[in-house]
Amino acid sequence: MPDVVGQPLAQAQAAIQAAGFRFANPTQAASATVPNGSVISTDPAGGASVAANTLIRIVVSTGPEQVKVPTVVGQNEADATTTIKFVGLSVRVVPQTVPAGDPNAGRVISQDPAGGKMEDKGSAVTITVGVAAAATTTTTSTTVATTTTTP
Predict the structure, then answer these.
(1) Looking at the predicted structure, is the pLDDT value of residue 68 above 80?
(2) In which band, very low, low, confident or very high, does the pLDDT at 148 lie, cut at 50, 70 and 90?
(3) How would you label 16-35 residue by residue, b for 16+ Cβ within 10 Å and e otherwise?
(4) pTM above 0.70, yes or no
(5) Cis before 44 (ω within 30)
(6) Taking Cα atoms as reference points, which of 59, 46, 54 lies closest to residue 20?
(7) How many whole angstroms separate alpha carbon 125 and alpha carbon 96?
(8) When you count CB atoms within 10 A of the terminal residue's CB, does the N or C end of the chain come out lower?
(9) How far is 54 from 51, CA to CA, in rounded Å?
């Protein structure tokens, strides 16, 4: 049995036929490492001693698994991070200064990609989180001049 893992489906099928085997309709599976349309595995495996005319089962990659990006705008940073990671995506946080007392402090102001979009599992979602500006205090000092008069 020829080893056809990693080969495009048409090339793999031609090699299997040329070696005197038959192949079943391929099944599909997601793979983060094998390109879309290429062979992930065969049964029996490549290199196995197999009788001529044996039916070979092929699994073909559909590419990386796709997941739906959750909408997290308005959530606090911790909840947004948990929600994004739960579906298999990674998070990149970009702080953005907002005025002191702004209700967006600690909350997601924007995200990229937008919620609802399909992305490869493991891809990053960038969230922009409001960070309150430090309150400024102004101190005023008063100087009183003292005058002494001598008679």
Answers:
(1) yes
(2) low
(3) beeeebebeebeeeebeebe
(4) no
(5) yes
(6) 54
(7) 16
(8) C
(9) 6
